[in-house]
């Protein structure tokens, strides 16, 4: 038990347009205030260690074992993330390589990992052929191992979803019933939302269930499109069809949340999924056996070689030209429309009611086109100046004749990355270039390509000596029009001026 005496503050809303809304993210987790501890902390006492604490200690011991086994730093980072869900040591270089190659899901412990564990045990012993008592005992052990792994890896939303679903399937198998995967999937979601309603807003939760629905519904239809006679070719096609189904189902969410798409992800997953299975099949038993003190250095070396080989493949794909398509921005409405188009296309091709779904698909596409046209027609053609709110320095954007110009001075790289660039990337399709600035006394003058001048003195901006016609203040969610045109410096949020 600890006592923290420092004051707490409400988590603030974003101060700039399209800045990540950390306050909304934490609110979905049930957290509304933050506290900077510093030296204001007192340890009042210690209680008995909880099961979470014991698992954390075990995780630490396993990390130490992996570190002693693997001399290659990148191999250690990937193995610790893949086997026990520890991504804290993952370097930016390795994370970016896996993300651009389309293999980041391997490093985030999820249904893939839990499914590998579940399938591994059912590979050798088929519960259906066992006596009732033996079947119940065996499946109970499998369930315990699944939840032990979920605890070990930190109980993320995707792991809890997968563990709950496979538990329900195992319980159905105890009674020799053929369990409905859809029922198990729906019931697992319901159970998780009962205990934590806000989990529905978690990106991982949404991606997990979207991927599972894609695999369960789209994959059987996709794999039937081609039935090669060669067993090896069919295996690779089957893995590819799983990847296609999962990526189609998660595409709208991926573009909406991350604005990027890995170009070669289908090819990547042909190699990554078997590699992940092999690493887990060797790595997890090795880590457990290492706790007994056995010398497993030879097998550990084999594990390191496999992980290094996987990394080589990932970095090769990462370095290919056009490995990642960036700058794909979708609004919430566009993401919903794209989802309807994907599932409408599936229903159109697989259903007997083709005319009905053709009309539905055409309607969705027409609404999407009309909404984009409406946004384009309603876009302001007036010259605008946007002054960002930063912790230090200055950053401004100026829109003139549909071209966007930029200027910043003294701003930190962190402020530019998180407060400025998200808006610039989305709102500047026609980049005009950088403005030239000059300080004159306590004033700043920016020269425009049209030979106009923007000037600022004491936080008051003018265009060719004229005051702005309208001034807007960003309140954390939208632009609010201010009563006057004497624009103050952005003390609490960004300011937009219309000239």
TrEMBL record:
Transmembrane domains' residue ranges: 106-125, 137-160, 181-201, 207-227, 234-258, 270-291, 329-349, 356-377
Keyword Membrane: yes
Compartments (UniProt record): Cell membrane
Membrane topology: Multi-pass membrane protein
Keywords: Cell membrane, Membrane, Transmembrane, Transmembrane helix
Signal peptide (residue range): none
One cellular component term from this protein's GO annotations in UniProt: plasma membrane
Annotated ComEC/Rec2-related protein domain residues: 82-348
NCBIfam families reported in the protein's UniProt record: ComEC_N-term
Name of the protein described by the UniProt record: ComEC/Rec2-related protein domain-containing protein
Species of provenance: Echinicola pacifica
